[in-house]
Amino acid sequence: MDVLDEVKKALHKVNPGLDDGKIVPGALLKDDLDVDSLDLVEVAMALEDVYSLTLQEDEMDNIKTVGDIVSLIEARLKVKSG
Amino acid sequence: MANRVVITGYGAVTPLGLNIDDTWRNLIAGVSGVDYISLFDTTDYKVRIGAEVKDFNPIDYLDPGTARHTDRFAQFALAASLQAIESAGLKIDESNRYDFGILVGSGVGGLDSLTQQFQNLSTRGPARVSPYVVPMMIADAASAQVSIKTGIRGLNLSLISACATGTDVIGIAYKMVKWGEVKAMVAGGADAAVTPMGLAGFAQAGALSRNSEPKKASRPFDQERDGFVVGEGGAALILESLDYAKARGANILAEVVGYGATSDAYHVTAPLESGEAAAKAIEIALAGIDSDEVGYINAHGTSTPLNDASETRAIKMAFGDRAYKIPVSSIKSMLGHMMGAAGTIEAITCCQVINKGVIPPTINLEYPDPECDLDYVPNAARNADVRLAISNSFGFGGHNSVVAIGRYNGR
Predict the structure, then answer these.
(1) Minimal Cα distance from B124: which residue of A?
(2) What is the mean pLDDT of residues B47-75?
C-alpha cells in the first residue's frame, strides 16, 4: 500500500465519516477535512504504528495538508532505508 | 421576585427505549430491561447482568468523527437533551442563545474511555494514549456537547452527586430559573457504567445483585432483594420560568414546586439507617406545601437491602401514618440503576404520572419484607389521579435529594 493510502486509512480511523474523494494531497486538514490538532495526533499515532517510527512534535507542527503528511512519512522512510 | 418554574419538555434514552414514548409504554407494561450483558465479555465476572441501552446509534445525533471521540455517556446525554429541546419547542438562535443554561451531570463520567486509555498506557506506553482521553472522560463532556450541538451560550455546568446526580441537576436548575439567572435550562443526567470497570467495581463493593435470573434481579422492597442492577442511559428536561413559557406559547407539562437536599454525614456507601437525613430532604422539598397533597412517590428503590429499608423509614418519618396511603414505586425494578440518569428519568416519570393518570409498578415484588411495608404498587400499573408527586434520589457519599413536581394549574 502506498503512503497516501495509509494516510487515508489513518484519517478514516480518526473520522469514519470522511469523504474518501476529498482526501487528496492538496486538501487542507483543518479547512477541508475538519481534522483538528487532536485528530492529527491520532493520525500520527496510527502511522507510527504502521511504519514503526516515531514522529516528533516539531515535525508535526508544520503539517497543513494531506500531502504534508505523505511527504513527512516518505522522507522519514528514506532516512530509515538509506 | 421568585419565578414559578415549569417543565415544558423532556427526552430520554433508556434500557426500555430510545425515547420517552417507548420507555413509558414498557414501564406501564411492567417490562424488565435487564438482561445478560452484551457490551463486553463477562466470563470472569461474578455478576453478568445489566440494563443496557439497546440499538442506540450515536450517528443519529452526532457526526461519525465526533461520535468516535465522545464517550457513550455523553452521547446519551446529548440524545436526551436534543429530544427534550425538540419536545419543548425551544428555538435557540442568535437573539436568545445567552438566555439559556445547561446543567448536565454524570455519576462516573467517561469511565470506559479512561479505562481503555489506561490499558494503552500500561501496555504500549504514554505515546499511545489518545489525545482525546481527557475530553472523553471528564464529566462535563456531556454538557459541553449539548452546548456545541445546540448553540446555547449561557451558564454551562456539570454536577456530580453519584446516584443523586439526576435529581440534583433538576433541583439546581430549578433554583437558577426560580431566581432569574436564566430563562430556561436544560437539566439532564447520563451515565454509561455497564463497562468492565463499572461492573467489577460495583460488584466488589457488594452493591450488585447476584441473582442469576436477569428479569428477576432488580426487586426493590422485596424480601429476596440482594443488590442493584447496573444500568445506563440519559435523560433530560427543559425547565423554564412560567412567564417565559407563557410568552413563547409553550406547552406546559408540569411545575417544579420544591427541592430538598441533605447529606447523611455518615458513610461513603451505606445510607444512614434511620433515614433521618433523607426524611429531612423530603420535608425541605415540601416546605410551604400541604404534604397531604402528595399522591405519588417515585422511590430511589435500588433493590439493595439497606437502601430500601432506610428509604421506607424515611418516608414514614416524613409523612407519618399517611405514608401507608401514598403509592410508592421504583422503576429501577425495570430500568435497573441508570446511575446519574436515574433521578432525571424518575422525575420525568412523575410528570408522566401526573399527566397520564397511571402509576408504573414496582415489579418482582413477590415476597413482602416486614421492614418494607408501604404500598409499592406491586407488579401492575395502577390508575390514579395525582396532582403532586415527589421523586427521591440518594447517592454514594450520603447525598439525599428530592424534587417535588406538581400538576400545572393553568394559571
Answers:
(1) A49
(2) 96
Q: Tell me, which fold does domain B259-406 have in CATH?
A: Peroxisomal Thiolase; Chain A, domain 1 (3.40.47)
Is the pLDDT reported for residue B31 higher than 90? Answer: yes
pLDDT for the residue numbered A82: 65
- Reported pTM: 0.95
Q: Do domains B5-247 and B259-406 have the same CATH topology?
A: yes
ipTM above 0.90, yes or no: no
Give the helix, strand, coil percentages of chain B, each rounded to 5: 40, 25, 40
Say if the Cβ atoms of A14 and B68 lie within 8 Å: yes
Which chain B positions have a beta carbon within 8 Å of A33's beta carbon? none
- Whether the CB-CB separation of B40 and B232 falls below 8 Å is answered with no
User: Does B136 score more than 70 pLDDT?
Assistant: yes
Per-residue pLDDT tens for B196-214? 999 999 999 999 999 989 9
Residue B68 distance to chain A (closest CA, Å): 7
Phi, psi of A38 (to 5 degrees): -70, -40
Inform me whether the pLDDT recorded for A80 exceeds 80.
Answer: no
Residue reference for cell 446543567: B103
Query: Measured between CB atoms, does B268 come within 8 Å of chain A?
Result: no
CATH number of the domain within which A59 lies: 1.10.1200.10
Q: CB contact, 8 Å: B130 with chain A? A: yes
Report the pLDDT value the prediction gives residue A1, as an integer from 0 to 100.
76
pLDDT, average across residues B8-28 = 98
Assign domain B5-247 to its CATH architecture.
Answer: 3-Layer(aba) Sandwich (3.40)
Which grid coordinates are listed for B58?
A: 450515536
Helices (H) and strands (E) in chain A, counts: 5, 0
Range of the domain at A31: 3-81
Q: Where are the domains of chain B?
A: 5-247, 259-406
Interface test with B, best of A29, A41, A55 (most B CBs within 10 A): A41
Inter-chain CB proximity A17 and B65 less than 8 Å: yes
DSSP labels for B348-362? HHHHHHHHH-EE--B
The verdict on a CB contact (< 8 Å) between B127 and A16 is no
- How many domains is chain A partitioned into structurally? 1
